[in-house]
Amino acid sequence: AKVDSSPESCTSSPKDELYGVTFQVSTSRADFESKYRELHKLGSGGFGSVFAGERLDDACNVIKCFGVQVQNGVEHQLINEVAIMVKVSQGNCPAVVSLLDCYELPEEVILVMERPVPSMDLHDYKEFHGGVLEEEEAKVILRQMVEASIQMHNSNVFHRDLKLKNILVETDHSYPKVRVIDFGCGCLVKEVIKCKKYTPPEWHSSKGYSAEPTTVFHLGALLYSLLHRTSFHTLFYVARIKGFKWGLSEKCRHFLKSCLAENPDDRPSLEELLRYHYSCSASCLTLTAHLCTECRGHKAAHSLFCTLRAAVITCDCHMECTNI
Length: 324
Hints:
Layout: E1 10-11, H1 14-19, E2 25-26, H2 29-35, E3 36-45, E4 48-55, E5 61-67, H3 77-90, E6 99-104, E7 109-114, E8 119-121, H4 122-128, H5 135-154, E9 157-158, E10 167-170, E11 177-180, E12 187-188, H6 201-206, H7 211-227, H8 234-238, H9 250-259, H10 270-275, H11 293-296, E13 304-306, E14 310-313, E15 320-322
Antiparallel strand pairs: 1-2, 3-4, 4-5, 5-7, 6-7, 8-10, 9-12, 10-11, 13-14, 14-15
Helix pairs in contact: 5-7, 7-9
């Protein structure tokens, strides 16, 4: 690891050597306070709290995450997230939110990460758009997630918890641009995976699963959740308690069935998903791509009609929105 010789500066972490990555961990609170301003609290979880913040030299929006160190001297799981995020960044994965700084202090570990603004998590984005997305929009999100998953796997990183809450959507683009967050449950692909949350069917039979088939299953579950008002549940799906809603295209049904196949050997690879004709790029999005940001914000409450050449909406603020 990179180690600065100055006092209260940088120190190496055992995780650096374990994961074969290099990153700097500052031990100076004064350094943090000289670079960042902590703002309001965004939320909290099992490992600590999350605060909005800004970088002092350029007012860049950031997120501060911290967690209390455990008592037995073992480093907090946030350090694990640091190593994984650095590993991904070395593989040039723009869909992953960037880690800016890490501080390991006596009473807490602080991560400072990029905060895309404006943005919301994919769960809130879905609810804002009426609780369900149309196929064309879901396909654009799916393609980005497939590309991000390939880039992560190429860096030997497996995000074990791809779900709506762990995906941000930047809302100032003409399409839903996604960013992946929360690697606290992630691990390197080389490790044995035994995580019970959002498990594929093979976990229940063999108590284990491997990275790529699991990621493909998660992407199928993600697409299912975007297209249905109720979220995907593995046991309900396997037991045939939940099926696909009426109105989905045959291509969509086939894609979902392939990703959600009970036998992991029957699922396509990530590269095959990328080549599959169902997923599409942002240029394919005709539902809201030609609406201005303000008009797209009314999608949940008003009816829209879009074509490739123009978009006409019926909302209080605009009567017509042409190509932009």
